């Protein structure tokens, strides 16, 4: 009987600690605003810092609390600001946006230093050391983090060709074919 008491004491202590932790989790539970998760899901989640916050979740929380404008996310552009404004039911502020942007590297000016590739949080820059680099437009968010580190000034931001609306040719009404 002396040997079984220590064997039973360890699980009993573990069970008591488990119940205390479970009670503490329920008693000290902090309710989160579900809008924060919804806004954070819309953001690019690259933690680029262009908004002034260390991460997209912190930026989303500030937007929900009204401490940051809905247009704070530079890579998201005006389209993202409108979606967040609709979600939070607030007016969109700051309407001077050129739309979604992507980086473009000039092949003639790029010396292949690789600084831009290291700075890109989205892995949108491809290339090898001492060779010319390129941008994957579908992965680039236009955060402009790569612009400041390029010693050759070979990177520019341009309007995203995939998301920029283009003028469409007016269509003529379709006539039904008559079969006789």
Automatic annotation (TrEMBL):
Keywords: 4Fe-4S, Electron transport, Iron, Iron-sulfur, Membrane, Metal-binding, Repeat, Translocase, Transmembrane, Transmembrane helix, Transport. It holds the Pfam family Fer4_21. The chain crosses the membrane at residues 6-28. Gene3D superfamilies: 3.30.70.20, Electron transport complex subunit B, putative Fe-S cluster. It comes from Sodalis ligni. InterPro entries: 4Fe-4S_dom, 4Fe4S_Fe-S-bd, 4Fe4S_Fe_S_CS, 4Fe4S_Ferredoxin_RnfB, Elect_transpt_cplx_RnfB/RsxB. Residues 101-130, 131-160 form the 4Fe-4S ferredoxin-type domain. GO terms for molecular function: 4 iron, 4 sulfur cluster binding; electron transfer activity; metal ion binding. This is Electron transport complex protein RnfB. Residues 31-90 form the 4Fe-4S domain. It comes from the Bacteria. The lineage of its organism: Bacteria, Pseudomonadati, Pseudomonadota, Gammaproteobacteria, Enterobacterales.
């Amino acid at each position: 009987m002396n040997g079984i008491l220590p064997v039973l004491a360890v699980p009993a202590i573990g069970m008591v600690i488990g119940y205390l932790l479970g009670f503490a989790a329920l008693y000290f539970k902090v309710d989160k605003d579900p809008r924060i998760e919804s806004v954070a899901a819309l953001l690019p989640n690259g933690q680029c810092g262009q908004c002034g916050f260390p991460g997209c979740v912190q930026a989303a929380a500030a937007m929900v609390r009204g401490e940051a404008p809905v247009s704070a996310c530079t890579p998201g552009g005006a389209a993202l600001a409108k979606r967040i404004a609709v979600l939070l039911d607030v007016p969109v502020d700051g309407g001077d946006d050129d739309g979604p942007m992507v980086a473009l590297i000039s092949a003639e000016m790029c010396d292949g230093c690789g600084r831009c590739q290291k700075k890109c949080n989205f892995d949108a820059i491809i290339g090898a050391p001492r060779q010319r680099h390129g941008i994957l437009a579908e992965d680039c968010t236009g955060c402009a983090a790569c612009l400041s580190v390029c010693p050759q000034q070979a990177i520019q931001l341009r309007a995203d060709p995939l998301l920029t609306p283009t003028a469409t040719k007016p269509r003529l009404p379709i006539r039904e074919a008559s079969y006789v």
